[in-house]
Design a protein that fits this description.
4 iron, 4 sulfur cluster binding, about 20% strand, about 30% helix, 2 domains, FAD/NAD(P)-binding domain, 13 helices, HdrA-like, 4Fe-4S, eight-stranded mixed sheet, FAD/NAD-bd_sf, globular, 21 strands, FAD-dependent oxidoreductase
Length: about 425
């Protein structure tokens, strides 16, 4: 046995916790959608999440979904299905609203994270999925070249999960990495995208200082040497609660979120930067004089880490050319949004301009090249650095998660490997379930 891979004989020594059709590792946007999709199609499904709540980055770090709309005037909505159900459920509660993006990512859907936790609880419960919280995958069970289960560390100690199909929706490709899958090596192409600690403030008048003025004040304050502001084009936006704001300001560079010491340093540095940005807002920005910090993100937000090197690799040229694929299982119109190591953000639009064009996300991006019984979904799908900077939005995470969940349920029903699922049948199922293709 290695630290990551277990044989069937070694796995048999672990107490069996759960056995069924589909096990989903990671309860973020991709994993929740995958679990709901699989369970709705009749698969006995388990969703494994490390926190005590679902939603991942969507509830621990952020408060706005991007990727539902392509950028540009009168741009179309490009994601439906389970992701759009989530938006409708939040809106019906009065806990979400659409917010035009003043940069380039298209209209966002801003929501209350606490409400999103409840929505995911309700959707997974209604679908009949089993949810295991406070649990983390520590190993992968292999029978030859097939993934047959997971070792998890949970409240009761080490346990065994057995499943006919496994979905890696961990964001960091934890399952694929532990199983020995071929992975993209982001740092070989370019430095990893920076991490961001978000924070929330109350007692502010956001209308007093428009975004462009805020950026000018950031640049002026940084140039004075009185403030350490690594990013000069960040945002403070309104939330569902009057007089409050949510930030996307900090920029932690040069650290690897899959390295234990780097991640620890990043968390501390993110909080330090949050305090510095808050000091700047209070001292230099009209409307923020009485700002009160109400909380920082549960963890630092990670844009990029490990990725699968899959059957298909989505590339920059595919994105910018608005390419379609015969096995497309989702659509994306988000620009290549590269938060480089400098003070700004580099944008490159699908089709070269903000015209509402979209591209297809291939099913092959979810499929490992060698191992059977495993799919990936969400941020760790197979893409180059630049393509990943477009397809990583939470709406696309939900869309690829729904596709992975449906594919695994169909493969179990047919007694086949998810990598060999009939793509025409899968696309038909997704269309029937409201997915936009």
């Amino acid at each position: 046995m290695t630290a990551a891979r277990l044989t069937e004989a070694e796995a048999a020594a672990l107490p069996l916790l759960w056995e069924g059709d589909v096990a989903v590792a990671g309860g973020g946007s991709a994993g929740c959608a995958a679990a709901v999709a699989a369970a709705r199609l009749g698969a006995r499904t388990l969703l494994i999440e490390g926190y005590g709540f679902l939603g991942g980055t969507g509830t621990a770090v952020l408060d706005t979904f991007y990727g539902f709309y392509a950028p540009g005037p009168d741009a179309p909505r490009v994601v439906g299905g389970i992701g759009w159900e989530v938006c409708e459920a939040l809106t019906a509660r009065g806990e979400a609203f659409e917010r035009p993006n003043t940069y380039g990512a298209g209209t966002g859907v801003t929501y209350e994270p606490e409400a999103l936790k409840a929505v995911w609880d309700e959707l997974t419960s209604a679908a009949g999925a089993d949810v295991l919280l406070h649990a983390r995958v520590t190993g992968v069970v292999l029978d030859g070249d097939r993934v047959t289960g997971l070792a998890v560390d949970c409240a009761g100690g080490p346990r065994l999960v057995r499943a006919a199909a496994v979905i890696d929706a961990t964001g960091d490709a934890e399952v694929a990495w532990r199983a020995g899958c071929a992975l993209e090596r982001p740092r070989r192409e370019r430095p990893l995208q920076p991490m961001t600690t978000t924070f929330r403030i109350a007692g502010v008048d956001l209308t007093a200082t428009p975004s462009r003025k805020l950026h000018a004040l950031m640049a002026e304050a940084a140039a004075s040497g009185a403030y350490d502001l690594p990013r000069r084009e960040g945002s403070v936006h309104r939330t569902v609660h009057p007089g409050t704001g949510h930030t996307n300001l900090t920029r932690v560079t040069g650290l690897d979120p899959t390295d234990p010491w780097d991640l620890s340093r990043a968390e501390s540095e993110g909080r330090r930067q949050a305090a510095e940005y808050l000091r700047f807002l209070r001292e230099r920005v009209p409307g923020y004089e009485d700002a009160v910090l109400t909380g920082t993100s549960v963890r630092i937000g990670v844009r990029e880490s490990r990725r699968l090197a899959g059957r298909t690799v989505l590339r920059r040229e595919d994105v910018l050319a608005a390419r379609d694929f015969p096995d497309a299982i989702a659509r994306c119109g988000a620009p290549v949004e590269d938060h480089d190591g400098g003070t700004g953000t580099v944008w490159a639009y699908v089709g070269g301009a903000r015209t509402g064009l979209t591209y297809g996300v291939p099913y092959g991006c979810l499929v490992p090249r060698t191992l059977r019984g495993l799919l990936v979904a969400g941020r760790c799908l197979s893409a180059t650095h630049d393509a990943h900077a477009s397809v990583r939005s939470m709406a696309q995470c939900m869309a690829t998660g729904q596709a992975a969940g449906a594919a695994c349920a169909l493969s179990v029903r047919r007694g086949a490997d998810p990598g060999g699922v009939d793509v025409a049948e899968l696309r038909g199922q997704l269309l029937a379930d409201g997915v936009i293709l």
